[in-house]
């Protein structure tokens, strides 16, 4: 097999993730930076909410990249290895909480990264966005 | 005066610009990368449409930055100076068509950059987004 | 709301901050690098005093950026998270002491960062500069 | 001779250059970014005037660096070689007008770079600053 079938996130999917994350962040009263990347770690969508941290543009994107490349939530690496990985990837691999992969039918289709709040707030917003995405996927299959 | 009053683009404004640009690009049948930055050239919003060029993530963002920093549409610099400016800003100042500033009450509040189509298509999508933004601003003031 | 009102630091404000910081550093007998950035973390003013450390050009600037993006004095992050944040922002977020935000009427208008002395000296110079700025603001409002 | 005497620009000298440049730019009605570097191309002073271009932070600094490293005004290199030099220095050598060296008793002590206006305006502001500096030097020697 020289090629293989795959599943890709669409820009509608990225837009849904961003909107759901913004809604969750607003409900929480914590402005956030939210990044969505595809399986190639390339940016698909981004929103920086009013009052969120400018420097979180970069960290939120890297959380999304880390989740997309590993297929796992960010934050699970041992502290020593985390810094080595960060150094070895020019900072792109991060162990900060707030990055989640998007996995559909066993395919990693991308990742979402949220940053500007506490670690816990960042993670909650990412979880709300992924939950909204999977719910919509599920509704689509049954409709 | 140690401080001065200013106007800032909100993330709702950035979201409206992205949605209007996506709509215009879909109507045109040409997938695009669309970036919105604030007056400090920091990313506020981004969408990469399905089928658009991955490397346009960067060029679209730089078009937005160039328009925001100059307060003018991109593309008006003489060819010789354009390359010098690109080099002197590590590629951030670009003379590619498709970047437009967003100017409200005389304040540059940001810029939009569109890339992945022809120069003409990129510009048209940016123009459609700015027109939709200004129309909504106008409606808001009269409602 | 597609836009929102804001307050910006002027270059006169940045110049006052630099002059007050230089004066405080001279009184202390410790040469310093002093950077002032706006709310978008873009450089507004800078002075490297005779005898201060050349490599502090970068660290002082990053202290200013960190204070401006967080709205808080630098140095308050837990050691573990501090390194992760530094990595995830290519070193721009720093936990070194000596960065202070400039907050006017609830708006973060920028930050000042001081580096080349001990942590305590850096912080004192930044504090003196912010105090001088706020005093002048106060005088302006009552004159 | 293992060492040699030199002359260095002080931060008071850099401050005078910045103030003179700001005054000239204000008289001209054109906001500018102004950078001063020492003979090692390291930043000594900087001011970004209200309304000047954010991306000129970088280009103004590089004009100062280019003038300091060559000992000549920027802009005198042939177009072809200029781009090669820009590429070979990661954009630090620039042929944009607006950079002038500061030469005292045959020693290059640094450079000033001005950017955000037209090439001609940038150069005029740099010239005004250097003239003010040399005038003050001259007054000092005769007082």
Order of helices and strands of chain A: HEEHHEEH
Main sheet overview of chain A? 4 strands, antiparallel
End-to-end gap of chain A: 34 Å
Structural class from helices and strands of chain A? alpha+beta
Shape of chain A: globular
* CATH top level assignment of chain A: Alpha Beta
Strand-residue proportion of chain A:
15-25%
Rg over C-alpha atoms of chain A, rounded to the nearest angstrom: 15 Å
Low-confidence stretches of chain A: none
Helix content of chain A: 40-55%
According to CATH, the homologous superfamily of chain A is Haem-degrading domain
What is the typical, i.e. mean, pLDDT of chain A? 96
Indicate how many domains the architecture of chain A comprises: 1
Number of helices of chain A: 4
Q: How many distinct beta strands of chain A?
A: 4
Strands of the biggest beta sheet of chain A: in what spatial order?
2-1-4-3
CATH A-level architecture of chain A: 2-Layer Sandwich
Keywords (chains A, B, C, D): Signal
Pfam families (chains A, B, C, D): HbpS-like
Protein name (chains A, B, C, D): Heme-binding protein
Signal peptide (chains A, B, C, D): 1-24
């Amino acid at each position: 097999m020289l090629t293989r079938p795959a599943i890709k996130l669409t820009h509608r999917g990225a837009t849904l993730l961003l909107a759901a994350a913004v809604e969750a962040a607003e409900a929480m009263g914590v402005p956030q930076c939210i990044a969505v990347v595809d399986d190639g770690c390339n940016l698909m969508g981004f929103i920086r909410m009013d009052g969120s941290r400018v420097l979180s543009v970069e960290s939120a994107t890297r959380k999304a990249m880390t989740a997309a490349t590993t297929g796992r939530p960010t934050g699970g690496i041992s502290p020593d290895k985390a810094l080595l990985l960060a150094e070895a990837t020019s900072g792109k691999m991060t162990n900060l909480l707030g990055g989640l992969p998007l996995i559909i039918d066993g395919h990693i289709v991308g990742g979402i990264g949220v940053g500007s709040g506490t670690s816990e707030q960042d993670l909650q917003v990412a979880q709300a966005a992924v939950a909204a995405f999977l719910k919509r996927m599920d509704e689509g299959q049954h409709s």
